[in-house]
Amino acid sequence: MCLDDQILNTYLDGELAEPWKSQVEEHLSYCSSCRTRYQNLIALSNSVKASALTAEEIEPHQDRVLSMIEKNYLSKKGKRSFLHRQFKVSAPQMIGVAAAFVVVFVGSWSLFGHNGNKDNAIPLPEVNTSIDLNNITQTRSSDNATTSKSLETYSLDDILKNLDARGYDVDIRLKSIQPLSLSSSAAEVKVIAKVIEKNITITSDGLAKDAEGTIVATGVKLDDKGQIVASDGTVIFKASEVKVMETASEGAVAATITSAN
Amino acid sequence: MEIRSGDELTFRQVYGEVFPVLMRVAYHVTYNQDVAEDICQDAFIRFFDKDMVFPSMNDAKFWLIRVVKNLSINHVKRKMRETASLEKVMRGPQVNPFKDGSTELLLKESTAAVRKAVSELPEIYKTVIVLREYADLDYKEIAKVLKISESNVKVRVHRARKELEAKLDREEVNVP
Q: How far B86 CA lies from chain A's nearest CA (Å)?
């Protein structure tokens, strides 16, 4: 009896177990028709194998997919977000942590809770920084950003227009701005004159301040006739109105303000 | 060697070793290189994301092959539904993907004919023949991937080859 195709196919794939394998080999050695059939099956199998996608055809796909995965997955592996991490906490640990929270909460209440009513005002520290070359640092936020414009590439006007377009109601005030003066430190600033009637104080750094300390004029100085003049020489206060406290040091005034009002 | 799919080094190793097999499986089921590439990418992303542990490289490979096989078959089924409904409307001539300009130049006539014959096999025969001839898996491995018995694999391989032979004989007659 000759071999059927299924046995030959199984034999061809190397899947036929003994003793059938030896029997098939023996049969093929003398049966030429089965041998021909077997060779046809080998030829078929080989032509199917030969039609496989080639290594050259596969390579570009392999590279492309890998670089996509590298870019989007491999590099991000270490940066898994905190929330996505799984925490394994045992029950006693959990209770311990919960207890610690209670202690902290109760403790903070007993320490700070009572003081709340006594002192409603927030004691903000007062900062008085005089600007000089030592405490000004120039920074450029665009150093790292190569593509997008940073805020400083826009003018104040641009920013205001933009905010206005977006529906913001903008009110700009300048606070605690003092003009730069040549006097090297605040410690040397002295009251040099007072305008008694208007309660205005003139200091050696060229500022005229009212009773509340608000600057009403800059760049003023006391001339040798005892009158207060602006930097262009205009007399602001006559000598009769002025009470001289101390003579201004030379060259104390640098700013260019023309009038006190 | 234990395989942890979420480990970058292991992932690269598995990728280098298994990608060609996956690409062949995906291609010879779908017969579209771009689709096959997408399917392989999809499979490897799942593999990496799930961070699974396999007892050996082969187990990882079989898992990947199973995923790719399923995705490929799903694609073919979807495609068949689409073309079937499209043909109802169009009644146009069928396009033979194996005879388009570029493949015809690149492939030998016999290669194109074989690919076409394989593509026309019923799904259950196609998968065994693809796994046997293109992924080079043995019967035991095919049985594992397809979750069928070894003797079932044996029968399917035989029937698949019988159909292929018939298709290719007809093809040769048709060739002018």
A: 29
Please name the residue of chain A whose CA is at the shortest distance from the CA of residue B166: A44
What CATH number is given for B1-94 in this structure? 1.10.1740
**Interface check A13 vs B, CB under 8 A:** yes
End-to-end CA distance of chain A: 126
Helix (H) or strand (E) holding B22: helix B8-30
pLDDT in tens, B119-151: 999 999 999 999 999 999 999 999 999 999 999
Q: Return phi, psi of residue A243, to 5°.
A: -110, 115
Determine, for residues A68 and B41 on separate chains, whether the beta-carbon distance falls below 8 Å. yes
**Nearest residue of chain A to residue B38 (CA atoms):** A65
Domains B1-94 and B98-176 share a fold: no
Res. A99: pLDDT tops 80? no
Cβ contact A49–B28 (<8 Å)? no
Q: The sheet that has A235-237: what strands, in order across it?
A: A221-222, A228-229, A235-237
Rounded to 5 degrees, what angle do the CA atoms B4, B8, B14 make? 65
Fold of B98-176: Arc Repressor Mutant, subunit A (1.10.10)
Distance (Å) from the C-alpha of residue B173 to the closest C-alpha of chain A?
16
Nearest to B27 among A5, A53, A55 (CB): A53
Q: Are A141 and A150 in contact (CB under 8 A)?
A: yes
- Residue A44, CA distances (Å) to A104, A204, A241, B117 in order: 79, 107, 120, 12
How high is the pLDDT of residue A252?
Answer: 43
Residue extents of the structural domains in chain B: 1-94, 98-176
pLDDT value for A131: 63
Chain B nearest C-alpha distance from A109 (Å): 45
H helical segments located in B120-149? 123-129, 139-146
